[in-house]
Structure formats: structure tokens, C-alpha cells
Specification:
heterodimer, A: mainly beta, Porin, 12-stranded antiparallel barrel, 2 helices, about 60% strand, B: mainly beta, Immunoglobulin-like, 3 domains, 6-stranded mixed sheet, 30 strands
Chain lengths: ~250, ~600
């Protein structure tokens, strides 16, 4: 019995020893990741598609963005391009690098540069824009551009998603661009330049990471820009059937 | 004779060993098979969930935790009252456990009941690092049972925690697959009329809020004791036995509504503390909460333990049966829950002008009791068309004419099993009802069996507004994320009244480490003692804390991705008994929220 008691006594003593050691330890300050701004990233291809037009033009098209950053500041790379498959040439090729900060509950402001390097003359622009979610669930991206030649233009992208089911989604898009001065070399006239409207019916096959779709896209040029296009022997209006996938990772 | 002596000796030895029990836990990479998918995760002693740790009240435990991962880890003993440096929160209690290291936790067990433990590092807990704790009381328990089982729930997702967090930051509705569709629009039109439906959609669209935003994460498989619905964890019983079921919700994000069709459940304990027994047909268990219930199956048949997620996006299922292999019918999931404008009512600066077309279609008024004086004023387009079983025949003094200022206060209708619960916003779409029309447990039913503290006036009140922005997936307290926040400073010996004001449309299970949360249910001395307090959207909930543990503690929403997004605070208790005083004095951190 006495033997057992002494074991207990030893263990009690030991625990007292440890607790005094612990008492001497000071309170630490939080340097873990939790106390740091949460850094996150993402890559999204809103459009990654093959387009076939009513006059047999074939295009490979993408519209994607990648971001890295925190709630307070993100760096975003936006890239969009239209590749003429037969002519093996980029009809459009735009890359933007912007910094993005929140300015209201639902909107961010963006500023950065845009490089257009399609077939033909290149352009560099300064970009100022806002992007976010407008009432009634319209995704809005509005940008103001000033080119290295001093020409200014603006672009508005809007998107609305209609859920037929939680997997079958119809996305309606409208992109419109307006120029405040003429840039004849790249076929831009003053005023409303062009619109692109699209309807794409997608199915979320793998989470929201891979959603194949089919759809139609309508492109139109207006006013002076239309005249410039006609003068160079191009069309002013195109209808496309599209097939592609929305990708996010 | 000899064996007798030996057993005698052993039985003498046992209590001595128990008084200083030593336990070993290893943190390991494990494979988790849910029946729906197999996923690599993190577990303890080679499995997820980890073991049931059985302690005895009054014992001093020594737990050696060996980190076999290639990253830092930690174990937090959820709900246990212990010295702060044993609480296991990296950056607050201790630095964490490095890969390959063994950390020895050592603390006295000063309580009894059902608890759990989990990693407090990164997203290891959603990835599988959790287990249960059962503490045997020193004295007798105020209820009897013949058998007991731990019933530990989780919401196992095929994606890792890191990936889920990133996806939510990229697309907050990434996992929500119960959003309103075109089909629902037309079915609402046929129920409520075109104009009402359009104005309802416009009101929600105007706020950029989703009625379907009940659960952030869908697509999980509900597990009970690590088994998916198809693997069907089974607890064996002899008919007539009293079985104590120790429910623990170890989910990352999911509240469950639990029922056992055919059996009454008597709730005897909440968050490890005995409550005055209350008999229910169904109860909702918030993330990190525990409820102990006693059931008494009398028949030689199987019973299904059915745990539907609050938003009805998934479920867990297990069985109680007289023998292995028997099973009972598995109920269908009920209709997905939809928020109402009432759930939005906590939002600062919300425009109530858009409440025309408010939809009360979800309200099931089973009784007209208490409806006298109900005031439905000035709510144009308010639709009552879908109120099942609403009986107007004996409503006295119900006046719908020319009223201004709708009073929801008197809408406590349906005294028995009705859709009213003082812990939900009046008219909330989240008010639970029992599947069999019977009694659904409310916080208001919880009364302490044996109050731990004497009732006294709180020394002060601290308001904590639960805030966030779903579209940005940011979550905060008083509009400030943890990364930008000063600690909350409390003084040893005070009794603080916390006022939670939920200004978001989500439910937040708020967990204060190290000290008890006395939930104000209006029962004074008999208010229940908890460690996790669920605060529903659009509601204000009070809890009081006797500040009786020195040191620094975590205080956060227990939804993993809300905590990680910033709904988290450090609490510093200043002062204390002399031995602890030294610790507090060395702290040089500046600032403080209060």
C-alpha cells in the first residue's frame, strides 16, 4: 500500500513541477497565418470556345482572368483573344494587368495597363475601371481606356445568369464599347463602336470547374466604326454558333 | 486466491493510475472512406474520427500528442476548462506542434460530460482531425441509462479545406446547389401570384442576397462516427434498455436536424452540462455543440438516426438495432429551407420599403392560439395563401385594417410544435419544425439541472455584432476581421454580458474558449451553461461569462470558413490569482476592443 501511495505522490509532485514551469511561460502574440490577411488566388475562363459564323468564319476565342491577393488588394490579369483559325491570325488580343481594391460593399475599383497585340497595329492603354455586382444580380465590369496616342474609349461588360436548374445555366452577356475619339488605324470611329451579345447554355459537369456550353453570339459594329470596317472590305455584323466550356480552378 | 489478490491489487491500483492518466495520440495522414468517395485526410491514431478519449472527473491527464504530419498541428479540447496554455490554439495558447514533435498536454479534469477535440491549425479539422471526449462524473448522474454511444457527426466534403476556402473566395456560391431557379419562380407564381413573386425576387435581388443562402457548403457526405449513410453505423441495444446517445456535431459548416422516427428523445445534457430533462421529437445541433439524449426502444426492431442538414442539402444516417445488419426506413430529405425577410432584419441600413411582397408562404400556422392582436399592417402584397391549417374561426380582435407598423412580437403562434421559437427572427424561414409535427427542441427549453454559478448582476455588457459580406466572403465581428482586430480585454473576476447581434443572413455558432457561456434563455439562475452559442440571422442573443480563467483565449464563429475569413477574436483575461498574475504582466500587447 505504501508503495502505491508513493507512486501517487511522485506523480502529483511531477505534475506540480510541470505546472510551475508552465506558469513561467509568457503569453504569446499571434503570428500564425490566421492573423495575416488571407491570400487567395483563382483562374477563370468565362469563355473558352470555338465560334462558327454565318459566313463560315471560324474563331477560337477566350476570355479569362487570373487573380492573386487579399480582400484589400488583388492583382488581376485579364486576357481575351479571338484567333482566326483559317488565317492563323489574332483578330483581337488584349492583355490587362490591373490592381484592384474594394470601394463599396459590392464593387471594386481597378487601375492598370492594357496591351493590345493583335494582327496589325498594337496599342497600349491606361485602364481605370469598376467591377462588381449590381442590384438584381448583374455582373458589371466598366472600364475607361486612354491609349498611348491619347485616344479615349470606354467598355461596359454585363452578365446575367438564369438558372434553369442548379446545373443548367443560361448566361446572357452584353459587351459594348464606345470611343470618344477616332483611332482610324485600328478601325475605331467616334461614338458607339461595337456590341457583342451572347447567350450560352451551360451544364456544370465538374463542380463549377468545368461547365461545357453551347450558344449564340452576335457581333455588330456601329456608325463610323462600321463605315471603317466596310471601307476595308470587312463585315459589320456577324452571327456565331459557339461551343465551349467555362473553366475555373 | 492468487488471482483474487491480483485483481484486488489491480483495483487498488486503478484509481491511482486514473488520478494521473496518461494517453497517447498521434496525428496522422489517413484515408477517409465515406461510402460515396475516398479521400486523403488527417486523423488521430491512424483513423478519422480519432478515438473516444475517456477521462474521469478529478483526474489529472497527461496527453502526449505526436505530430506525424509534415506541417504544424495542434489539438484543442473543445469545451474543457483548463489552463490557457493547454487549450491548443496556435498563436494564442501555444506556438503549435511542429512536424515530428511530441507535445505533452497536462491538465486537471474539472468537469464531466460529452465534449470533443479537434485540430485548431489551418483546415485540419474539416480535413478529418477530430475525436470525442467522454468524461465520467465523480458523483451520480441525475438520469439512468444502460448503454451509451457517442454519435459524432461531420460533413465530409470531397474537397480539402484549403480548396473550399479558395473556391468560396473566388465564387461565394460555388457550392450552393439549392439556388432559386426558373422552375421555382413559376411554382411561386402559381402559389403566390405573379406580382408577389416578381416583387419578392426584386426585393432580394435589390439586396444582392439569396433566399437560398442557408448553407455555404453543399455536396458533403454526412458521417456518423466516420460512417456514411450507405455504411450505416449501427448501435446495438436490447429492447427496453435506456440508451444514452452522446451527439457531437464536429462539422466544418453544417447544422443538423436530428430525429429517430419511432423514438422519443429525452435531452439530458447540452454542451456537457446537465439540463432539466426535456422530451423532444427532433432537435437541431449547431456546429460544435453537443447534446446527450436518452432513448428507450422497446421493440425488437431497427430505428434510423436521421440527421438532415438545416438547409436540406445532405444528411447523415445511422441505425439503432437489436442486432447488426438490421435497418429501418430512411426518410426523404424535406424541402430546402428558404430565408425570409425576417432573417435579414438585422442588417444595418436595410431598406424595409422593399418589403412589399413579403412572402410568408413558409409559415405553417398550426394553431391560432396567441394570435389575438396580431397586426398585419401596411404590408402590401403580403401573401398568406400558403398557410396551411390556419384557423381564423376563433380569433378575436384580429384587426387587419389601417394598421401601421407591423408587430411580429405577438406572432408566437402554435404553442406546441408550431413554427415559432424565440431564438429565431419572427417569421424566419429557418424556424425548424418536427417532421412528425411533434416537439422540436428550442434553446428556450434548456434549463440548467444544477447551476454552476450563483446568479449575479453582470459587471458590464459587451456588444458583438456578427457581420459579414457574403459576396466577398468576408466575415467579421463589429465589422472588423481578426487580422485587423485588437483583442477583447476582460478582467479576472468580472461577469460579462455578451450581446450578440447577428447582422448577417447566416447562422453563427459562437464559441468562447476556456470559460463557460451562460446562455440567457430568461431562466435566471437556471440559464443553461454552454460552450457554443448559436446565433440565428436577424436575432440578438445574450450570454454571460464568469471571467474565472486567466490567460488568453480564442473566441470565434465555429464555422471553419467563417473563422478563417475573420470572424474570430482573441480574448485576454487580465489579472487573476497570483500564480497567473505573473503571466498576464509580461504581456505587452497594446490596444483592446473594450
Amino acid at each position: 500500500m505504501s508503495c502505491i501511495r508513493s507512486i501517487v505522490a511522485v506523480s502529483v509532485l511531477a505534475s506540480i513541477g510541470v505546472s510551475t514551469a508552465v506558469t513561467a511561460q509568457e503569453m504569446i502574440s499571434d503570428t500564425t497565418a490566421r492573423k495575416q490577411p488571407l491570400t487567395t488566388w483563382g483562374v477563370q475562363f468565362e469563355e473558352f470556345e470555338y465560334r462558327y459564323s454565318d459566313d463560315d468564319e471560324e474563331l477560337g476565342v477566350w476570355n479569362a482572368d487570373a487573380f492573386y491577393g487579399t480582400d484589400d488588394f488583388k492583382v488581376r490579369l485579364l486576357t481575351t483573344g479571338e484567333y482566326e483559325i483559317e488565317e492563323q491570325a489574332y483578330e483581337t488580343l488584349e492583355n490587362q494587368l490591373v490592381g484592384q481594391i474594394p470601394i463599396s460593399k459590392f464593387f471594386d475599383a481597378k487601375a492598370g495597363v492594357r496591351f493590345d497585340t493583335p494582327e496589325g497595329p498594337d496599342r497600349t492603354y491606361a485602364v481605370l475601371g469598376v467591377a462588381g455586382l449590381a442590384p438584381q444580380w448583374f455582373e458589371i465590369d466598366a472600364n475607361l481606356y486612354v491609349s498611348n496616342d491619347g485616344d479615349t474609349s470606354a467598355e461596359l461588360d454585363a452578365e446575367y445568369e438564369l438558372l434553369f436548374t442548379n446545373y443548367w445555366i443560361l448566361a446572357a452577356t452584353l459587351d459594348a464599347s464606345v470611343a470618344f475619339s477616332e483611332d482610324e488605324e485600328i478601325g475605331v470611329g467616334k461614338g458607339l463602336v461595337s456590341t457583342e451579345t451572347g447567350l450560352r447554355l451551360s451544364y456544370d459537369l465538374i463542380d463549377r470547374a468545368f461547365s461545357p456550353y453551347v450558344g449564340v453570339v452576335h457581333e455588330r459594329k456601329y456608325g463610323d466604326s462600321a463605315d471603317l470596317a466596310e471601307a476595308s472590305g470587312g463585315g459589320t455584323e456577324d452571327w456565331f454558333a459557339v461551343i465551349g466550356a467555362r473553366i475555373a480552378f | 486466491m492468487k488471482t483474487r489478490l491480483l485483481t484486488g491489487l489491480l483495483s487498488l491500483l486503478m484509481p491511482a493510475m486514473v488520478m494521473a492518466g496518461e494517453y497517447d495520440l498521434t496525428v496522422d495522414r489517413v484515408k477517409i472512406d465515406t461510402g460515396d468517395f475516398v479521400k486523403e485526410g488527417i486523423g488521430y491514431n491512424g483513423a478519422s474520427p480519432g478515438p473516444v478519449m475517456r477521462f474521469k472527473e478529478g483526474e489529472n491527464v497527461k496527453i502526449n500528442v505526436t505530430n506525424n504530419l509534415d506541417e504544424m498541428t495542434s489539438i484543442h479540447w473543445h469545451g474543457l476548462i483548463l489552463p490557457f496554455d493547454q487549450d491548443g490554439v496556435p498563436g494564442i495558447s501555444f506556438p503549435g506542434i511542429k512536424p515530428g514533435e511530441t507535445f505533452t498536454y497536462e491538465f486537471p479534469i474539472q468537469q464531466a460530460g460529452t465534449y470533443w477535440f479537434h485540430s485548431h491549425s489551418g483546415f485540419q479539422e474539416p480535413d478529418g482531425a477530430y475525436g470525442s471526449i467522454v468524461i465520467e462524473p465523480e458523483g451520480r448522474e441525475p438520469f439512468r441509462y444502460d448503454r451509451e454511444y457517442v454519435v459524432q457527426l461531420t460533413d465530409k466534403h470531397p474537397h480539402s479545406g484549403d480548396r473550399i476556402m479558395r473556391n468560396l473566395k473566388m465564387m461565394p456560391d460555388y457550392y450552393n446547389r439549392e439556388q432559386q431557379t426558373v422552375g421555382e419562380f413559376f411554382s411561386d407564381v402559381s402559389k403566390n401570384g405573379l406580382m408577389n413573386t416578381v416583387s419578392d425576387r426584386m426585393a432580394w435581388g435589390g439586396m444582392r442576397m439569396m433566399k437560398a443562402d442557408v448553407e455555404d457548403i453543399h455536396g458533403f457526405t454526412g458521417l456518423i462516427n466516420g460512417k456514411g449513410p450507405s455504411q450505416n453505423w449501427t448501435g446495438i441495444f436490447e429492447p427496453g434498455e435506456r440508451i444514452r446517445l452522446r451527439f457531437i456535431n464536429s462539422s466544418a459548416m453544417t447544422y443538423f436536424d436530428i430525429r429517430i422516427p419511432g423514438l422519443d428523445m429525452t435531452v439530458v445534457q447540452a454542451d456537457g452540462n446537465n439540463v432539466q430533462p426535456v422530451s423532444v421529437d427532433e432537435f437541431r445541433i449547431g456546429v460544435a455543440e453537443t447534446y446527450d439524449v436518452i432513448v428507450r426502444p422497446k421493440d425488437e426492431q431497427a430505428y434510423t438516426i436521421f440527421a438532415e442538414s438545416m438547409g436540406r442539402s445532405g444528411y447523415a444516417r445511422a441505425t439503432l438495432a437489436p442486432e447488426e445488419g438490421m435497418e429501418a426506413a430512411v426518410p426523404q430529405l424535406r424541402e430546402p429551407a428558404r430565408l425570409t425577410m425576417a432573417d435579414m432584419s438585422g442588417m444595418a441600413g436595410m431598406d424595409h420599403g422593399s418589403m412589399a411582397g413579403m412572402d410568408h408562404g413558409d409559415m405553417n400556422m398550426s394553431s391560432s392560439e396567441g394570435m389575438g392582436g396580431m397586426d398585419h399592417s401596411s404590408m402590401e402584397g403580403m401573401d398568406h395563401s400558403n398557410m396551411k391549417g390556419m384557423d381564423h374561426s376563433n380569433m378575436e380582435g384580429m384587426d387587419h385594417s389601417g394598421m401601421s407598423g407591423m408587430d411580429h412580437g405577438s406572432m408566437a403562434m402554435g404553442k406546441k410544435g408550431g413554427p415559432s421559437d424565440p431564438f429565431y427572427a419572427k417569421g424566419s424561414g429557418l424556424v425548424p419544425t418536427a417532421a412528425n409535427g411533434g416537439k422540436f427542441l428550442s434553446y428556450a427549453d434548456l434549463k440548467a439541472q444544477d447551476p454552476l454559478y450563483e446568479l449575479r448582476e453582470p459587471t458590464r455588457e459587451i456588444e458583438l455584432r456578427l457581420t459579414g459580406n457574403m459576396e466577398r466572403y468576408t466575415w467579421s465581428i463589429n465589422g472588423v476581421k481578426y487580422e485587423d482586430a485588437d483583442p477583447i480585454r476582460l478582467k479576472y473576476g468580472e461577469r460579462v454580458r455578451f450581446k450578440f447581434v447577428n447582422e448577417t443572413m447566416m447562422t453563427h455558432p459562437m464559441h468562447l474558449h476556456g470559460m463557460w457561456s451562460i446562455l440567457d434563455v430568461g431562466a435566471g439562475q437556471w440559464n443553461p451553461i454552454k460552450h457554443t452559442i448559436s446565433v440565428n440571422p436577424g436575432t440578438t442573443v445574450y450570454m454571460e461569462t464568469e471571467v474565472d480563467e486567466p490567460g488568453q483565449w480564442a473566441f470565434h464563429c465555429h464555422l471553419s470558413y467563417h473563422a478563417a475569413a475573420g470572424m474570430f477574436r482573441k480574448v485576454i483575461v487580465e489579472g487573476g490569482p497570483e500564480s497567473a498574475q505573473a503571466k498576464t504582466d509580461v504581456l505587452v500587447e497594446d490596444g483592446g476592443e473594450v
